[in-house]
């Protein structure tokens, strides 16, 4: 019997993509229309934004643990969080969590290693790209990473928080992401991390000058494999 997956959500569009991926791709593992049991809990993005832009990761951890405890009571066996930014609080959360977790950046790093990538460009919120979340997990596997400059990071933040989290996908924003990926390619990166769970809604593999590592779907697929005891 498959394990029960608990999703600690933060922003709606990314969490929905993660949930849909588990349910739709579950059929490949378990049979037509089948997937593991899934429960989700989310505090509002507004609540999280009271903490993380100021670097208050303890406040973020409290919200994540609140969700974790609710999901444990709902019967979840393990947890995932389809939000890259708030993984900066992961160590504080894991130490007190009632359930084990998968780590989104760790799953991305494993996939990068599987493909033999050596240098990744990382796209994500301004807060994410100022944290240890990706450098720490990538360096453990001997993989380097690059970020945009200050202006680029702030423009990506604007696109994510003012457009993508509301399901808005303007063509001009896709062009900005494509230019950013082109810059990473020129800087010697061999792939790009779509390190915000909403970015894959805007940037498809065919839109990118570099291979993409879709953090949302990679986490969902890792959860599916764990739940089903595959691989």
UniProtKB/TrEMBL annotation:
It comes from Candidatus Korobacter versatilis. NCBIfam families: asp_race (TIGR00035). It comes from the Bacteria. InterPro entries: Asp/Glu/hydantoin_racemase (IPR015942), Asp/Glu_race (IPR001920), Asp/Glu_racemase_AS_2 (IPR033134), Asp_race (IPR004380). SUPFAM superfamilies: Aspartate/glutamate racemase. Its EC number is 5.1.1.-. The keyword Isomerase applies. Keywords: Isomerase. GO terms for molecular function: amino-acid racemase activity. This is Amino acid racemase. Belongs to the aspartate/glutamate racemases family.
């Amino acid at each position: 019997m498959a394990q029960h997956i608990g999703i600690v959500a933060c922003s709606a569009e990314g969490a929905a993509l993660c949930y849909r991926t588990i349910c739709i791709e579950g059929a490949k593992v378990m049979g037509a229309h089948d997937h593991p049991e899934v429960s989700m809990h989310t505090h509002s993005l507004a609540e999280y934004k009271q903490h993380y832009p100021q670097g208050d990761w303890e406040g973020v951890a409290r919200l994540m643990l609140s969700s974790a405890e609710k999901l444990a009571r709902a019967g979840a066996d393990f947890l995932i969080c389809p939000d890259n930014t708030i993984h900066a609080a992961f160590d504080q959360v894991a130490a007190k969590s009632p359930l084990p977790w998968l780590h989104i950046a760790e799953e991305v790093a494993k996939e990068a290693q599987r493909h033999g990538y050596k240098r990744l460009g990382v796209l994500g919120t301004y807060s994410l790209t100022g944290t240890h979340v990706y450098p720490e997990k990538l360096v453990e596997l001997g993989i380097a990473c690059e970020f945009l400059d200050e202006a680029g990071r702030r423009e990506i933040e604007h696109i994510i928080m003012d457009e993508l989290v509301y399901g808005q996908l303007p063509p001009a924003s896709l062009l900005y992401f494509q230019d950013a990926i082109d810059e990473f390619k020129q800087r010697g990166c061999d792939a790009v991390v779509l390190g915000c769970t909403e970015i894959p809604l805007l940037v498809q593999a065919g839109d990118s000058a570099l291979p993409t590592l879709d953090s949302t779907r990679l986490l969902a697929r890792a959860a599916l494999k764990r739940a089903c005891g595959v691989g």
